[in-house]
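Minutes, project check-in
Item: structure for the 205-residue chain
Input as provided by the requester:
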Amino acid sequence: MFARSAWTPPEGWAHALTEALGIELWRIPIVILSAMGIYLAFLVFVRFFGPRILGKLASFDAVVIIMFGAVAGRVIIGHPPTLAAGAIGLFTLMCMEAAFGSVQHLRMLRHTLTGYPIVLVAHGELIPNAMHKAHITRVEIITAARRAGLARLSQAKCVILEPTGDLSVIREGTPMEPELLEGVIGKELIQIDECTERSKRPRSE
């Protein structure tokens, strides 16, 4: 009797395993729809708040992202949380990621989902409107400049916020092909070196 009361669930192992691992059939579409809704909501929030939240995180930001994941997981799995519900939720998220990834080659749809690169610094000058739109502070730009090995912000030919949330820093004097600025918001602020322009022109016979 002691062993049974200590190790055996009150209603038996079959019922306990079903409760912990299984899922009612009527909950399956709810879990799928919840996962799809969370995925789409995340895309909308990233477009609204800017891609910088996907970049490298400080310790506090990491805690917030973990909390986001916990909230999203709770919404998707529902109550009670079970292994089957979690597996179905993860499978749905992976399917959504694969579906959106398969259409990334379509330029307009890709920019609609991920946004455009934005010039934040041009020839050492900050662009306040772009920084405000991208929710980027001067401190973050200075940090990116230090990470790129710059001693002064004036050494930056441009700093571009990528759709991934990373900050790309190009040193002043570095030749740039116009192709690298294709689709970049604010590219007209960056002066292309004359030597680069001449190299793109066909040679005259």
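Outcome recorded: The chain has two domains: 8-113, 116-200.
No further action items on this chain.
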